[in-house]
Amino acid sequence: MRMKSNPIWTLTVPLLVVALLAQGCATKALWSEKHYHPARPANLELSARPERQMVLVQYDEQYENSRKIQRRAYWLDLNDRYPITERPIFLQSVDTSGLQPVLILPEITATNAMPQTGYAARIISNHKGFELWQDGAPIAEFMLPGYQASAPADFYHVAVTPFALVADGIIIVGGVAVIAGVVYLVAQDDEE
After folding, report:
1. Phi-psi bin for 14: left (phi > 0), alpha (psi -120 to 50), beta?
2. CA–CA separation, 109 vs 38, rounded Å?
3. Could you read off the pLDDT of 127-139 as tens digits, one per residue?
4. What DSSP character marks residue 150?
5. Contacts of 67 by beta carbon, 8 Å cutoff, 6+ apart
6. 12-16, 18-22, 41-45, 69-73, range with the lowest pLDDT
7. pTM of the model
8. Closest CA relative to residue 58, chosen from 41, 45, 75, 42
9. Other beta carbons less than 10 A from residue 181's beta carbon
10. How, if at all, do strands 103-105 and 119-124 pair?
11. Radius of gyration, alpha carbons of the chain
């Protein structure tokens, strides 16, 4: 018995398979990498360790459009002439004893207003970085880190994961049922 081909089913089945393979990714989307960036305002704080040419950078960070703000801190080595382009090594705890606070001026501050002794900084780039000065002379501009990393294992992500898994299961079971139904209908159509 020769099976006849129906052009509607021939087009429908591949489209359904592609559509279903592209779905069922709620859990993956929930835990996919997120873009982390300085919050606005970043609440920048700088502290210098002049004898070692190191600056402790502290700022507020958020990921994507989240309302969750995390305080971050890392050491900026002024002897390293390469700007930070990746995620720095963040400190777990911060001890500022023995460090000199760095005066931070707003972006609109004129360069002739910079102090002539010690470190000073001026906010730049819409609060995403700072220009560091020492003894009245500019050292360099530094951008606060922006990077891709895994989603945080916070309460929200952990609490939503079971629901995402259930949604993925429903999509997968529904997809299998649709494909089985289409295959059954194609088989019935071919028998006629």
Report:
1. alpha
2. 21
3. 789 999 999 899 9
4. P
5. none
6. 18-22
7. 0.64
8. 45
9. 11
10. parallel
11. 28
